[in-house]
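Researcher: Good morning. I'm working through a list of sequences from a screen, and I'd like to move beyond sequence-only analysis. For each chain I'm collecting a predicted structure so we can compare shapes side by side. This is the next one on the list. No need for commentary yet; just the structure.
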Amino acid sequence: MLVLLGPAAAAATEADEFATGKAEYLSACAACHGDAADGKGPIASMFRDPVPDLTGLAERNEGRFPFLKVFQVIDGRSVIRAHGDPMPIFGGRFRAEAEARGAVFGAEAIARARLLELVLYLQSIQN
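Model: Good morning. Structure tokens for this chain:
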């Protein structure tokens, strides 16, 4: 059976592709970075340094989205942080949440999947 998708269906499919990452972003990141990922979240003014605009990561990296670096910064477990760095360590947080829900042996896989969804969403919203 051949099914043809029109432009509206194709657009809905693309939006659905990043829905999990967007939900993760809105839950974990939007307070600081804003719903539009522009660095203008409701608590951004509480920080000494400006909160980064996440829609310009590729632009600030010669047009290429720095996928691995973004993953590592959000994960936070393999990056050396300065004292007072306001960025949470989401890798540890996601793993702890999975363990608290009983996923002792799969907790790391769950944490990495959540991080991956989040980074893929950020990649999808680049200017």
